[in-house]
Amino acid sequence: MDEKLRFYKSQEGYVKCELCPHNCLLSENKFGVCALRTVKNNIPVVINYGEVTLFNVDPIEKKPLYHFKPGSEILSVGTFGCNMKCSFCQNYEISQNKPQSKFTDIDELINLIVNIPDNVGIAFTYNEPFMWYEYIYDVVKRIKEYDKHISVVLVTNGYVNKEPLEKILPYIDAMNIDLKGFTDRYYNKICKADIQPVLETIKIASKSTHVEITTLMVSDENDSVEEIEYIAKFISSIDKNIPLHLSRYFPRYEMKNPPTMVENIMKAKEVAKNYLNYVYVGNIAGVDNNTYCPNCGYNLVNRDVYLTQVHIHGHKCPSCKEYINIVF
Prior knowledge:
By secondary structure, this protein is α/β, with parallel strands linked by helices. The chain has helices spanning 92-95, 106-115, 133-146, 162-168, 184-191, 196-205, 225-238, 262-272, and strands at residues 3-4, 8-11, 14-17, 25-26, 37-40, 43-46, 51-52, 54-59, 73-78, 102-103, 119-124, 151-156, 174-178, 210-217, 244-248, 279-282, 291-292, 299-304, 307-310. The protein contains 8 helices and 19 strands.
């Protein structure tokens, strides 16, 4: 089902898509970078409205979100398409291709959310959710009208323009934003994008919703301790309580670099902790990813893979009363 674009301008025989920083010029049957937005019969449309490729109920820690509804499960859905071309993409089958999908109307999706036992809400994930903007906006607006306590999560690369971001943020409860590196060189070479819009998304989103950051440390590309230190300093300049997840890379899609050395990640974690209160590592077995009070060291949340035990209720450490950035 094609749906008219929400953010565009007509311009000298073209349609300028204004959803993301690529600002693609579209024409009849010619697509933008995301391969989703085009012009049909002189109408600017998106072709993935309501088209779902994946449904799963996941631990919320898998997003990863460690400080939002810890220990809960969330319905996770995705479509196809992306506005980046990351050569290491973990979900390239749907982000860089057009797989089989099923149209799911909004009422059907909400009915699914509310009837899954112990489900806290919905996470838009797997591919880039902002490339599903029209559908997601309609869904989340309806969700909050139906029940404002249903949680809405975006797992995103953050590559979106300010106006659409600010329009949808009032309906979003949490975001995990990929900060893929800290140089334009890395973003240009590996992701075919620019870093500055992502930094702006993090700044804007953190003012109105719960935000956590993930950086995939790719060997020989962005896995230096210095680069992670720059990332930690940037996040700390916004809020030192924003959790940072450092994830281990394994060869995938077009990227053939060897897996990231675990010792590099652990060193980077220790350096990042000089600036941030909460730093975690991913894709590494047997590491301590518990949440501790940054003031007294009290074990607030115990994690064993996706088995989570919560020892805090509210926003204060049970031991020393320090403020803790966790949403329940």
